[in-house]
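pasting for ref
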Amino acid sequence: METPVRRKYIPPQRRRQILAAAMELFSHSGYHGVTVDAIAQQAGISKGNLYWHFKSKREILQLLLHEIVERLFLPPQEVLESDAPPREKLRAITRRLLDTAEANPEAVSLMLQMAAQSELREIASSHYSFWMRHYVNLIAPLFASLGEDDPERIAMLYAATIDGLMALVVLGPRIYDKEKLMAALEQKFLSSTGGKDV
C-alpha cells in the first residue's frame, strides 16, 4: 500500500487543520478542482507552511485517504475485546460503522469520487483493499464462532454489504433507513446461522 511519507513531524492540531481543509475542498470540488493554494487558504496557513509539512497535493490526499478509510472501516477495538457474544459484537460494529458514515458524509463522498476517477483509483483501491482485508480478518472469527462453514467468505460478503450501506448514506438518503436495514442484516446474516453465541 502506498503510504504518505511526511518530511517533518506535523503537530496534531496543524494536521487536523490541513486535513479538514483538504477534506472540505476535495469533497466539494474534486481532487483536480483544488489547488495547494486553496488548501492553505482554507486551513488558514501560508502555502510555504503547508509545503513544510507536505511535499504535494497528492501526499495530502494520501494521508487524508488513509485516515478516512481507517475511520470508516476499522471496527471499534472496545467492541471486539468486550465479553459480548459474537452476534452482539457484530450488531455493535455494524451500528457503529453506519453511525460513522452518517457522521462523515464528506468522507464517504470523497471515497466514491476517487473510485470514479481512473487516475486516483489506484490510490483509493490500495487503501480501501488494505482496510477491507483488515476488517474481514477481524470479523471472520466472529462468524466462525457462530458456526459458519466458511467464515472468511461470509465475513467478506457481510463487509461488502456494510460498505454498500455506507455508500447509501450519501447516494440514497431518501431510501436509507438504518433501523430497517439493521433488521434486514439481522435476518440475513445473524439469525440464520446455525451456530450458538459463545
